[in-house]
Specification:
Layout: H1 36-57, E1 73-75, E2 82-84
Antiparallel strand pairs: 1-2
C-alpha cells in the first residue's frame, strides 16, 4: 500500500513574525517596519494639522466674482466691456442684434 501524504520536511525553518506597521497595524514588508505611505502620512501629520488649524483661524471672506455680471448688464464680445442691457451698440463699434418681440 502506498502512502500519498506529503513528506515531512527535514529542515523546518521558523521565521520570526513580520513586524506590524505602527500606523495602519498590518504586516509590513519594508526594512524599517513601516509602510512608505504610512511613514509619509506620519511625517506630514503634524504639518497638515498645523495648516488645518491655521485655515480654521482665518475669517471666511466671500470675495465677489470679478467676471460676474449683474442682471441689468451684458458684455460686449469684441472688447469685453460691460454695458447696460438696453444699449444696442458698444463704444468700440460692435452692434448687438436688436430683435423685436411682440
Amino acid at each position: 500500500m502506498t502512502d500519498n501524504r506529503m513528506p515531512v520536511p527535514l529542515l523546518q525553518v521558523h521565521n520570526a513574525p513580520r513586524p506590524l506597521c505602527p500606523v495602519c497595524g498590518t504586516t509590513s514588508y519594508s526594512r524599517g517596519g513601516i509602510h512608505p505611505q504610512c511613514a509619509q502620512q506620519q511625517a506630514d501629520g503634524r504639518r497638515m494639522n498645523r495648516l488645518k488649524a491655521a485655515k480654521r483661524r482665518e475669517p471666511k471672506v466671500k470675495t465677489p466674482n470679478p467676471l460676474a455680471l449683474s442682471p441689468w448688464h451684458k458684455r460686449c464680445p469684441r472688447c469685453r466691456a460691460e454695458l447696460h442691457i438696453r444699449k444696442s451698440a458698444c463704444d468700440c463699434g460692435y452692434k448687438f442684434d436688436v430683435a423685436r418681440t411682440r
